[in-house]
């Protein structure tokens, strides 16, 4: 999987050569070669790669991706081995999406991403046998859950190098599973592939300067009748309600547009998607997103009005997250 101290993607290239994704190979290898040579790589990237190299590749006796990301050995790891693995994983902090459970090591991540997955899964098309794309996938937690739900191939894109290293660390600890892959790309770098049965965009839209462009880019990756699963922050209100935060929203600088869920439905229809449906909407709580010993910096409780959790610290409505499901005609 690695060439010297740099992650390579040869296994992935080989895997898609004889599939409908093969035309992606016209541009993908050169994009990733440029990425590897880029001066913009994080100053800690080599350190994270060294941490990754220290982790053993383990084939679990028991792997459960349906109910979580859970791996067990026939007998759990020797104490000193377990201590080394946990210490190495902590060097890759902060861990935001999860949780993960490896051989008695529990990574208590900032987000209870399993809660979001349980909210989404009942409302989407069955993933069995599908090829799936997760845009802005973070450390790839949902990719493994998609595989657990039956996806044939789950591909995530996210440009953050720490998250790539976390993903590869998980892969090593669950048996070098090649059904999921994370590529350090942005959605803007993808050609019009039109080969994914399901495309997920979760927690991305409000960071985009042009939401219409983002929705169109997602649509471009879907096969005919493919399904888009869009999860994002919304506000309460009718189809004419939208919030444009000033400088920050919940202390995030790069939040541009927060529409109502019904406003967002109209956006999706305007982009040519059909069967658009709001399937879930709920307030994000400080139990779902919080500081832990695996993510020790500030979290949601620090970004809300301390006297009124219905508002952000800036006075805007606190985050409500809606899930919209739609289909490419």
UniProtKB/TrEMBL annotation:
Gene3D superfamilies xrefs: Vaccinia Virus protein VP39 (3.40.50.150)
EC number assigned by the record: 2.5.1.-
Domain of life, source organism: Bacteria
InterPro entries, per database record: CmoB, Mo5U34_MeTrfas-like, SAM-dependent_MTases_sf
Tagged with keyword Transport: no
Keyword Methyltransferase: yes
GO molecular function: methyltransferase activity; transferase activity, transferring alkyl or aryl (other than methyl) groups
Any GO BP: methylation
Catalyzed reaction equations: carboxy-S-adenosyl-L-methionine + 5-hydroxyuridine(34) in tRNA = 5-carboxymethoxyuridine(34) in tRNA + S-adenosyl-L-homocysteine + H(+)
Enzyme class: transferase
Keywords on record: Methyltransferase, Transferase, tRNA processing
Subunit text: Homotetramer.
Family per similarity comment: Belongs to the class I-like SAM-binding methyltransferase superfamily. CmoB family.
Name used for this protein in its record: tRNA U34 carboxymethyltransferase
Organism: Candidatus Profftia tarda
GN (gene name): cmoB
């Amino acid at each position: 999987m690695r060439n010297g101290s740099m992650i390579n993607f040869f296994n992935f290239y080989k895997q898609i050569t004889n599939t409908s994704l093969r035309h992606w190979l016209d541009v993908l290898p050169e994009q990733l070669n440029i990425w590897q040579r880029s001066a913009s790589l994080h100053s800690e990237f080599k350190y994270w790669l060294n941490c990754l190299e220290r982790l053993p590749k383990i084939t679990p006796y028991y792997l459960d991706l349906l109910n979580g990301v859970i791996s067990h050995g026939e007998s759990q790891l020797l104490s000193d081995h377990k201590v080394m693995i946990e210490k190495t994983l902590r060097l890759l902090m902060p861990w935001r999406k999860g949780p993960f459970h490896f051989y008695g090591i529990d990574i208590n991540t900032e987000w209870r991403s399993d809660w979001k997955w349980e909210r989404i899964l009942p409302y989407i098309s069955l993933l069995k046998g599908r090829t799936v794309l997760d845009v802005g996938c973070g450390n790839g937690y949902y990719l493994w859950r998609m595989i657990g739900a039956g996806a044939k191939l789950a591909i995530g894109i996210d440009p953050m190098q720490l998250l790539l290293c976390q993903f590869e660390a998980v892969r090593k600890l669950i048996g070098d599973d090649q059904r999921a892959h994370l590529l350090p790309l942005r959605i803007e770098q993808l050609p019009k592939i039109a080969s994914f049965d399901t495309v997920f965009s979760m927690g991305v839209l409000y960071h985009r300067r042009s939401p219409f462009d983002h929705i169109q880019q997602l649509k471009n990756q879907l096969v005919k009748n493919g399904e888009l699963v869009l999860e994002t922050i919304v506000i309460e209100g009718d189809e004419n309600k939208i919030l444009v935060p000033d400088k920050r929203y919940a202390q995030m600088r790069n939040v541009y547009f927060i529409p109502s869920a019904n406003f967002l439905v109209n956006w999706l229809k305007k982009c040519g998607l059909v069967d658009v449906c709001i399937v879930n909407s709920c307030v994000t709580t400080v139990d779902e997103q919080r500081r832990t010993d695996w993510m020790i910096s500030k979290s949601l409780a620090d970004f809300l009005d301390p006297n009124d959790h219905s508002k952000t610290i800036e006075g805007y409505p606190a985050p409500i997250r809606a899930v919209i499901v739609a289909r490419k005609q």
